## 1
Amino acid sequence: MLTYRDLKLACLMSLSDNEIVAFVASSVLILFVSGLRFRHFQRSTFDRFIDVGAVFTCHQGKSRVRGMAAPPFEWALPFTAFTPDKLVQKFVSTVSQVAKNNGRMSS
């Protein structure tokens, strides 16, 4: 069970100067806030920012009957009061940087 203390600790860790610690903590917070299954999170890419948050696209939904994959779907990550300022923007920036650097955190 997630407690307030766990959430607060993840928020503090997401502000770490250590890129890897901050990225992992931010990922955990994003999973908490979005309510998304981890598997769909792995299959998602950033799409765009909107007034209330960010929109991502999961490129493969749940399997349907007869093993047919569901079509891609969009999900939103809201800016919330309990997460650190600019958490979503920082996360999107880090993911973009990792993609440009062939999976590495720093250039």
## 2
Amino acid sequence: MTQPQIIRRQTDGSIDFDFYRAEATALRRQAMRDARTLRTAGLAVAVQAAVVGLVLGLAVPAWLAARPQASDADIRAAKEQPMWPLRARAEQLRLRLVNATGVSAVH
């Protein structure tokens, strides 16, 4: 069921254009305020993203430069070292587990 549209009229029966003009002006101003608010919020987000990008752009290279870098000789020496310290530590942990649980066959 459709309801009849109520049209505001003046006392002489003519349409009250001034009322509708004032209402349209108020709605237009509200839309402009909302648009300005959204634009300002978007600008704030863009500025925050730029600041974060700038901070990361300056901080990360400085942090990477401050880290100690291994030389080629250090890398070669590490590759040539035997793995026995790791195997000895694994055996220590296995023995500790056997002593704690009493199970001798650990897979």
## 3
Amino acid sequence: MSQADTRTSATLAMVITEVGPKAVLLVVPRLTGVPLPADHQLWTDLRERLADTAIDLIDLLVVGERTVWSARGSADQWLHHDADQSLDW
């Protein structure tokens, strides 16, 4: 993770903590609808940073025009949904 990415996740975790929601669902729009390695790193880093809080980090979704990827799968596997398929998660 680059220093800029670390600062971004630290700042985002600070904002989330200061706002103090019960739960957080992050959504990242991408033209391709496919998550980037930085998206996975953000999810991993935020889970670590918010682990000792009462805030429930529900998911990080990467959305495109016809696809949705969910980070709540296993550590190295995103759950994928295509708009032409039924939602089965």
